[in-house]
Amino acid sequence: MNAFAGTSSYYRRFRPGIPADLAALLAHETPAGSPRRLLDVGTGPGLVALALAPYFDDVIAVDSDPTMCAEADAVLRPALSAGHRLQIGHALAEDFEPPAGWQPHLVTCGRVFHWLDQRHFLNRLAEYVAPGSVLAVFSDRSLWTAASAWQQAVRAVVQEFLGEQRRAGDGIFGPDGPPYEEVLRASAFCDVTTAAIPVRREWSIDEVIGYLYSTSFAAPHLFGHRREAFEAAVADALTPFLDSGFLVEDNAFTVLTARRPSSRGR
């Protein structure tokens, strides 16, 4: 099941990228290399890779959805200089095989770790990463889990149209597994550090609707002929919360950076 079917163009236009402070943190944590290699897993339309491109020479961006791969190519290729090398891979993260001899210095999992077979992915990753390489797992709160009054009002509208349970495309969002830090500490990447990067955003009502259509829980096709009614209901719910024409969101990226301990062959 592709939980994000039909969302790729909305994801590209309406999902926020990562803040500059997060990109700088990940670049600082990554060992030097020439060329310096980035593997962006679950790249979507390439937003993470785009933010990190100034720090890396050789980028592979991987996604299981071919339409996301096409969006990533359209975003990344024009933005990279002639000195960059870019490859877009259509593959499951758990099945991805890098080119022979290619070892990433940084592997990024932005907003995607929940969707992976985590232990399988980590075991596979341990087979090909460079010595001393860094795995970064990070995400911000989605609109479904955010706690501000206007975000809760929007979630209530989604539930009115699609039901109380959180959707994942045509299915239901799976239960949370163990905490990510626990999963990482049980893997080869058991040297884990945590950080939080705050971010403040301003949204218009149209941007909120576009964001919703980028998610698995409010993908456009789920509303069928009721899309116009849904959009009108969202606008009605949000109008009382507008501040100078915008909705203010305070969010934060939770960031886990993980390495192998030095005793394991660094």
From TrEMBL:
Q: Which UniProt keywords are present, listed alphabetically?
A: Methyltransferase, Transferase
**Any idea which GO molecular function terms this record carries?**
methyltransferase activity
State a single Pfam family of this protein. Methyltransf_23
An example Gene Ontology biological process:
methylation
Gene3D superfamilies registered for this protein in UniProt: Vaccinia Virus protein VP39
Q: What is this protein called?
A: Class I SAM-dependent methyltransferase
